[in-house]
């Protein structure tokens, strides 16, 4: 059992950065019409080298396309991952707020929780948000 728990946590950590980046790229494209590396540097408060390395991994994994000095675009798989990440984030944040957590704290906490919440727990959160707390 412990091995299974730790394996899932390691897998969640492995996808966390990709999820954060595709979500940020989608948000930036939605807000500005395109996403450049500098947008991600500013969003994550990291160096250009960090963004370039991460974008190269995302490109290798088929989540983004880009060329030197060109905007970053999401592939169909990248868009799908960004949408799923955004929905999961919104559910976790809404659930925390429904529990009485302040909006600011819920926004911060949901950023970490969203990557580690199971499908079962996420479904339970959605059920409670839709139908209320069980009595």
UniProtKB/TrEMBL annotation:
GO cellular component, one term: cytoplasm
One Pfam family, short name: Fe_dep_repress
Location(s), subcellular: Cytoplasm
InterPro entries xrefs: DtxR_MntR_Metal-Reg, Fe_dep_repressor, Fe_dep_repressor_sf, HTH_DTXR, Iron_dep_repressor, WH-like_DNA-bd_sf, WH_DNA-bd_sf
Keywords: Activator, Cytoplasm, DNA-binding, Manganese, Repressor, Transcription, Transcription regulation
Domain HTH dtxR-type span(s) in chain numbering: 14-75
Highest taxon of the lineage: Bacteria
GO molecular function annotations of the record: DNA binding; DNA-binding transcription factor activity; protein dimerization activity; transition metal ion binding
Job of this protein: In the presence of manganese, represses expression of mntH and mntS. Up-regulates expression of mntP.
Self-association and partners: Homodimer.
Record's protein name: Transcriptional regulator MntR
Primary gene name: mntR_1
């Amino acid at each position: 059992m412990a091995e299974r728990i730790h394996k899932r946590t390691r897998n969640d950590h492995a996808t966390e950065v990709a999820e954060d980046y595709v979500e940020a790229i989608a948000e930036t494209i939605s807000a500005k019409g395109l996403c450049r590396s500098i947008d991600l540097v500013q969003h994550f408060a990291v160096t250009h080298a960090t963004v370039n390395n991460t974008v190269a991994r995302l490109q290798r994994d088929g989540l983004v396309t880009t060329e030197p000095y060109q905007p970053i675009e999401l592939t169909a798989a990248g868009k799908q991952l960004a949408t799923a990440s955004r929905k999961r984030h919104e559910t976790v944040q809404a659930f925390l707020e429904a529990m009485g957590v302040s909006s600011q704290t819920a926004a911060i906490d949901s950023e970490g929780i969203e990557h580690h919440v199971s499908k079962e727990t996420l479904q339970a959160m959605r059920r409670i948000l839709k139908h209320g707390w069980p009595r």
